[in-house]
Amino acid sequence: MYSVKELVESVGLTSVPSSYIFRDTKSDVHCMHVQSETVPIIDFSLLTSHDPDRRSETITRLGNACLEWGFFMCVVILQVINHGVPEMLRDEMVRETESFFDLREEDKRQYAGKKLFDPIRCGTSFNSNVDKTLLWRDYLKIHVHPHFNAPDKPSGFSKVLREYCQKTRDIAGELLKGISESLGLESGYINEKMRVGSSESHQLLVANMYPPCPQPELAMGLPPHSDHGLLTILMQNGIDGLQVMHEGNWVSINPLPNSFLVNTGDHMEILTNGKYKSVVHRAVVNSKAPRVSIGTAHGPPLDTVVSPAPELMTDGVGQAYLGIKYKNYLELQQSKTLSGKSCLDHLRLSI
Question: Cβ neighbours of residue 179 under 8 Å, at least 6 residues apart?
């Protein structure tokens, strides 16, 4: 089968095929305690406020969110429409993404790219060549910056995708300014050092489709992992399934209406020399409704070597991570199965 969606719709499953069953289900995958907590909320209207006191307070909250969670919600409210993402555009983006996954399998197969840096790749699982257990997930990955790419179908996808990705790049830039200041650096430090605001910065859109699963307790949409890049900006179609590891427990994330979920990636951890950690998260599945998530990963140009900022290696704090070219890190991640921070562990130094 080409996709999980095709498998579900063509067979009428009542049980999970053995190739999708996580053998360690009883030990870790589903049986750790899951709780509900409120993740930090960052209000963009305050982050971009001309009131220095309100902005300073928000930057402090942003820094604390990165320190304690590596994960926060950014509320899109009326006051930030001009530099945020309008609700209509968000809804259109979800609809167009759902329409892509609803295309005939032969239409999607033209994007079944085999190489990591193919402009558009559509497939299933994570890396079916190395995955020991298949994931209950179909995906669409598009390199949208510095060179914009889009599928030919659905017909309206390209226009919506271009506008949406520009908006999320703007959001990432503002967040990185606040994060820089929370670290005691100039507001433009991360954007300039990582060339995130440049015409060469890298942005990858990853859309995931998690079809209904007859035995959700046996399968996994995405196993515990951390993201590459500096920040990932995520929204979903109203169906929950994202869980974040926090203080040894899985926390179910229930985003506020019209909010974006934002998490720090491995390259934020490298750049900050471990002060701000990348967040370990996973996607669980359900038996009732398809879940769609749309994430944009924001990183430097592919040829950029990311290493700890010298300004954050002071007061006896040595270098905690080796530097690595961003492109090489993506290749390393793609060559392995997803497993926690296994890629980042390759770069850790004993200090």
Answer: 62, 63, 66, 190, 268, 276
All residues at 6 or more sequence positions from 342 whose CB lies less than 8 Å from its CB, including other chains: 336
User: What are the residue ranges of helices labelled H in 3-51?
Assistant: 4-11, 44-47
Q: Work out the angle between the directed axes of helices 87-101 and 157-182 (0-180°, nearest 10).
A: 120
Give the total number of structural domains in the chain. 1
- The answer to whether the CB of 93 falls within 8 A of the CB of 164 is yes
pLDDT of residue 342: 87
Instruction: Let me know if residue 150 belongs to a domain.
Output: yes
Quick one: 220 exposed, middle or buried, by C-beta within 10 A (0-12, 13-18, 19+)?
Answer: buried
Residue 80 pLDDT class (50, 70, 90 cuts): very low
| Domain residue limits at 254 | 4-345
Examine residue 351 and state whether it is found in any structural domain, yes or no.
no
Instruction: Give yes or no for a contact between 36 and 252, defined as CB atoms under 8 angstroms apart.
Output: yes
Rounded to an integer, the average pLDDT of 252-260 is 86
Within-domain flag for 350: no
Compute the 3-state secondary structure of the chain and give helix, strand, coil in percent, each to the nearest 5: 30, 20, 45
Any residues with CB less than 8 A from the CB of 219 and at least 6 apart, and which? 16, 20, 21, 22, 135, 136, 213, 285
pLDDT at 327: 97
